[in-house]
Design goal:
Blueprint (H helix, E strand, L loop, with lengths): L1 E6 L1 H5 L8 H10 L2 E5 L2 H14 L5 H18 E4 L7 H5 L7 H15 L4 E6 L3 H9 L3 E3 L1 H6 L6
Parallel strand pairs: 1-2, 1-4, 2-3, 4-5
Helix pairs in contact: 3-4, 6-7
Length: 156
């Protein structure tokens, strides 16, 4: 079965920042037939870069070097999922899934993406605990920190 990998912003950042498990994310992405993310991810990734610069963990020169690579991924390989943000609002109100607003958009985008790809095995990659739990609740196989520690391949 063909595989698709939905990446939230925390996973996309690992393409460009040598954080723990960045190599696993890159390997999973290389082995996926399709990569996808929400349209909000670009702004979130840029915000993460900016935060890393402000905290001293990254230089602006490095951001200017990786920006063309991010654009190449964004406008090349990534399927960008567009949803109505109003449809994601119920996930924020769930008493069992305490998601933040942008995480609810990622979850809804991943669910919408999966609904369009019945012939694909769609997995969810994130490093955000709340979002990981929500994705599992909605039946996604999740590739996260624990999967990286186990050396779990994309195609199991």
């Amino acid at each position: 079965m063909a595989t698709a990998l939905y990446l939230d912003s925390s996973a996309i950042v690992k393409f460009y920042v040598h954080e723990p498990h960045y190599q696993s994310v890159r390997q999973w992405a290389e082995n996926a037939d399709i990569l996808a993310t929400s349209e909000i991810a670009y702004t979130e990734v840029m915000s993460a870069f900016s935060q890393k610069v402000r905290s001293g963990g990254m230089e602006w020169d490095y951001v200017s070097q990786v920006l063309p690579k991010l654009n190449q991924l964004w406008f090349g390989r990534l399927a960008v999922v567009r949803i109505d943000p109003l449809e994601a609002a119920p996930y924020v109100l769930s008493p069992t899934l305490p998601l933040r607003a942008m995480d609810s958009i990622h979850l809804h985008a991943a669910i919408a993406f999966r609904s369009q790809l019945s012939e694909y095995s769609v997995m969810f990659c994130s490093f955000d605990r709340r979002l990981i739990q929500a994705a599992k609740t909605y039946g996604f196989r999740v590739l996260d920190e624990e999967a990286a520690k186990r050396g779990e391949p994309l195609k199991a």
